Amino acid sequence: MKFLSFILLTLALLLETTLTTIPLVLISLVCLIVIYRQDILFLFGFVFGLFLDLILFKTVGMSSLFFVIFLFLILLYQRKFEIKTANFVLISSFFGSLLYLLLFSNGNLIIIQAIVSAIIGLLIFKILQRGKIAQ
Questions:
Q1: Alpha-carbon torsion angle 54, 60, 63, 67, nearest 10
Q2: What's the pLDDT tens digit per position in 20-47?
C-alpha cells in the first residue's frame, strides 16, 4: 500500500507540475484515503504538498495545510457518510478541487477543471478499488 501510494502520488506530482493545473495530488490523496484509511497518507499529503509548493514557487506549506485539513475532514465525516462509494469520491473530488483551485489558482475555467478533476478522481478510485479487490 505504501509503495503504491508513493508511486501514484509521485506520478500525480510530476503531471501536475509539468502538464496540467488540475490538482492531481489532491485527487490521488482523496482516493487513497477513502480506500485505505491509513494515517501515513497524512504524512504523504504534507510532504507532497511541500514538494508541490517548492516546484511551483508558491508559498511553502499552503498546499500541505490544505491537503491535511481536507483529508482530516473526509475521515472526520466517515461515520456520517458512506465514504467508500463512487458518489462520495465524485462529490468530494469536485468540491476539494473547486476549493483548491479557487484558493491557489489564477486561471479561468475553474468549474470545468473541477468537473474534470471529479471524473479523474472517479477513474482513479475505480482502478484502485479493483486493485484492492484483486489482492
A1: 110
A2: 989 999 999 999 999 999 999 999 999 9
Q: Quickly count: other Cβ atoms within 10 Å of residue 128's Cβ.
A: 20
What is the reported pTM?
0.93
Grid cell 510532504 in the structure block, residue: 47
Tell me which of 1 and 63 has the higher pLDDT: 63
Contact assessment for residue 26 and residue 97, using Cβ atoms and an 8 Å cutoff: yes
End-to-end CA, the chain: 11
Distance CA 123, CA 91 (A): 13
Answer for the pair 93, 30: CB distance below 8 angstroms, yes or no.
Answer: yes
